[in-house]
Structures are given as C-alpha cells and as structure tokens.
Amino acid sequence: MSSDNSIRMTTQRAAILTEVQEADKHLTAGELFERVRRKYPTIAYGTVYRTLHLLAEHGIIQEFPFGDQASRFDKRTDRHDHVHCLICGELTDVDVPIAILARQVAADQTGYDIHEHQTVFSGICPKCQQMN
Questions:
Q1: Could you tell me which CATH class the domain 1-77 is placed in?
Q2: What kind of fold does domain 78-132 have according to CATH?
Q3: Cα separation of 124 and 14, whole Å?
Q4: 55 and 20 in contact (C-beta within 8 Å)?
Q5: Nearest to residue 7, comparing CAs of 78, 77, 58, 63?
Q6: Which residue from 16, 45, 56, 111 could staple onto 63, CB 3.0 to 4.6 Å apart?
Q7: For the chain, which residues make up each domain, given as ranges?
Q8: DSSP of 33-83, one letter per residue?
Q9: pLDDT band of 96, cuts 50, 70, 90
Q10: Pairing of strands 120-123, 81-85
Q11: Would you list the DSSP string of 91-116?
C-alpha cells in the first residue's frame, strides 16, 4: 500500500470516492457501481472497479477481499477490526481493544516487525440467524 495519496482525481473518481465515504456500510464494487451509475449513467463497471483498487492501493480507502465473495470497501483507513457474515457477506466495524495486544503477541512469537494488522471475526449476522 502506498502512503502517497496523490492520484489524479477525475470527476468520475471523485464520484466513486464520495459514494464510498457516504455509504453507511461496506459496499461491494457492484453496489458502488449501481450508486455511481445513478449520477453518471455512462460510467463503465470496469472504471468503478479499477478506481476502487487504485484508491485502496493509495491508502485512501481500504479493500477487504473475501476469497470467492466480492471484496468490500471501507472509508475508514485507521486501524480497526471487523465482523464478517459468512452468509450474506456483510462487513461491520467493531472496536476490539484487546486486538492491539494480539499484535504484540504475534510479534513476540514470530520475531516479525509487524507494521499493521486487522482482526476479522467471521460468523453469522443477526439478520441471517433469523432466517435460519
């Protein structure tokens, strides 16, 4: 990840970033594409997809890939943790103070000089629990 946030901010890129920043949850590229397309009907899915990865690469947003599920994008770039639903794929911010201690334990046990970490808890969200 680059710490250089200087990318050329075109109108389309700004619109995509705005949608990420205004979202009340972590959206997929497809969900963001649908939102951006309401304002820019001619925008291509590839443009949205590439822009999201570019913004994440430059540390302006965070990307959370989940294997064969769609990546989710987060406006928060500070260190924080998440809970991920294994059924619907929802990703929710959670503040877990003890997770900071995990970083030190990992460094002590491996000898790594750890630069960053995130904890992602996986489970089933309340909405999906009610459906089962």
A1: mainly alpha
A2: Dna Ligase; domain 1 (3.30.1490)
A3: 34
A4: yes
A5: 58
A6: 56
A7: 1-77, 78-132
A8: HHHHHHH-TT--HHHHHHHHHHHHHTTSSEEEEETTEEEEEES--SS-EEE
A9: confident
A10: parallel
A11: EEEE--TTHHHHHHHHHHHH------
